[in-house]
What does this fold into?
Amino acid sequence: DAGVIQSPRHEVTEMGQEVTLRCKPISGHNSLFWYRQTMMRGLELLIYFNNNVPIDDSGMPEDRFSAKMPNASFSTLKIQPSEPRDSAVYFCASSRRREGWETQYFGPGTRLLVL
Amino acid sequence: AQSVTQPDIHITVSEGASLELRCNYSYGATPYLFWYVQSPGQGLQLLLKYFSGDTLVQGIKGFEAEFKRSQSSFNLRKPSVHWSDAAEYFCAVGPSNFGNEKLTFGTGTRLTIIP
It folds into this structure.
């Protein structure tokens, strides 16, 4: 069974450009999470969806960041315009929420470098 | 608000020696607690979790953790480490009311294994 799939694995872009990160959750999972990992701030939750609906976006840093989940098998995280301080590893995770806590399964991450 | 503290940024252990990684949490009620491991260039993998019941939890790869309510701790242990255990370890806490699936991660402990 395939795990969480993220693309691209690496992205190098110039300041001001639009960046789109993609995530395919594990089939059958109904919760999807976007995390950002940096040396300074560690691992922080940006936003999460349940049944394709955004539940908590309090971690989204600013209006330059947006996330969508048009269907159960695909999500995007977009940064427009990108800035050097957005350089980080972005992880997507998914879980199958039922009546209690379920394990979040993480993808391999997208390493973003904004020059 | 929930929070997690991992007081050790970096730990070095000899192969075959025992290991204990510390984790302290702050939460108003009994939390849900997790330990994840991240190998270089990889996503996070769940080692073990505590929801309720027996306070000594067994996980994968020979790891265990003990929940101590009086100390607000959830320390990770392994009796004998292997070179393949070199990685970064993250403790995380989630709210027990399950109204929100938001995990809060500690800053991580990097484990180095020496021969």
